[in-house]
Specification:
This protein is α/β, with parallel strands linked by helices. It has a single domain (about 5-240), classed as Rossmann fold (3-Layer(aba) Sandwich). It is built from 11 helices and 10 strands. It has helices spanning about 45-50, 80-85, 100-110, 130-135, 135-140, 150-165, 180-200, 210-215, 235-240, 240-245, 260-265, and strands at about 5-15, 20-30, 35-40, 60-70, 70-75, 85-90, 170-175, 200-205, 220-225, 225-235. The strands form 2 sheets. The protein has a 6-stranded mixed sheet, sandwiched between helices. The protein has a 4-stranded antiparallel sheet with strand order 2-1-4-5, covered by helices on one side. Strand 1 and strand 2 (about 20-30) form a beta hairpin. Helix 3 (about 100-110) runs parallel beside helix 6. The protein is globular and about 55 Å long. The chain binds adenosine-5'-triphosphate (ATP) and magnesium ion. Adenosine-5'-triphosphate binds near residues 20, 46 and 92.
Length: about 270
């Protein structure tokens, strides 16, 4: 069976010279949670922006590769075209309209009802503002307040709630836990896992917190310098010595200093 989302050999260049993405391939199966993880500048945001149509309009080009969604080629779509296909995107910043109330933000999402296609696989569980306020108690308490007053976690909930109202087939969350306190981070991750478990929502989650993502993802891809350097099932990655040492901070047999790590990265010229 082909995957819901397939990215093959994606290459993205900024300003004619910076090859931010250097031939990335990965896939997201329908009904799965997949994590795209890696450190600052690894290329996570560029990758998910290319999928959701949110790359800047100037100074950046997709120079190679294919992106397929539900069997259809989708490279170079505009954001509204991707949204119509059921790709809902929560960006890492600027995810809600600050000058609107919580309720108004959700109304904006609902107004986009043309996005509600009838394709199979769409998550139609959340159809009204009340559905979202029932899901997120914290938002219900602040429904009529301006969104500028929301905390980081509440903004994340509101952005995810707005996406759910568009009956998404794939929910992409960029930096799911950025700037959140550990308890709020856990809540966001658990909520995504619950949406996946109960309603079969397919989720592509982007984060620097490899451990957090692997706690809910079926499959993970670790990016470095625009390349996939590790890929595998959650179990595979969690047991891999290098992943444990370099991304989960679990030391194996001996201490390694910063110099060793740099050397390791140089020696292991991934690909
Ligand atoms: N608009 C831009 N113009 C030029 N270079 C850019 C632009 N946006 C990103 N880059 C470069 O592309 C590379 C990948 O950036 P990207 O934002 O995709 O990484 P990321 O993995 O999302 O990082 P972070 O964890 O900090 O969000 C970086 O080297 C970055 O400097
Ligand atoms: Mg990013």
């Amino acid at each position: 069976m082909t995957a819901l989302l397939e990215v093959e050999g994606l290459e993205v260049v900024y300003g004619h010279v910076i090859r931010a993405i250097q031939g990335i391939s990965f896939s997201v199966g329908e009904g799965k949670i997949v994590g795209l993880v890696g450190l600052n500048g690894a290329g996570k945001t560029t990758t998910v922006r290319a999928i959701s149509g949110f790359l800047p309009t100037e100074n950046v080009r997709i120079t190679d590769g294919r992106i397929r969604f539900a069997g259809q080629s989708i490279a170079r779509l505009r954001p509204y075209q991707a949204a119509r296909l059921g790709i809902a995107f929560v960006p890492e910043r600027d995810k809600v309209f600050d000058t609107l109330t919580v309720r108004e933000n959700l109304e904006v999402a609902l107004t986009a009802t043309t996005l509600r296609g009838d394709e199979p696989g769409r998550c139609r569980r959340y159809r009204s503002i009340k559905d979202i306020l029932d899901l997120f108690e914290a938002l219900a308490r602040r429904a009529d307040q301006l969104s500028v007053f929301l905390s980081g976690g509440e903004r994340q909930m509101l952005a995810i709630g707005a996406c759910l109202l568009t009956a998404p087939r794939l929910l992409i969350v960029d930096e799911a836990s950025l700037g959140l306190a550990p308890i709020m981070r856990r809540q966001v991750l658990d909520m995504l896992a619950q949406l996946n478990r109960e309603f079969g929502l397919t989720v592509l989650i982007v984060d620097q917190d490899v451990g957090g993502v692997l706690s809910i993802a079926d499959h993970g891809y670790i990016l470095e310098n625009g390349r996939v350097v590790f890929a595998g099932s959650r179990e595979h990655l969690l047991q891999h010595g290098d992943v444990k040492e370099f991304y989960l901070g679990q030391k194996e047999d001996r201490e390694r200093g910063y110099r060793d790590v740099k050397q390791y990265r140089r020696v292991r010229r991934w690909h």
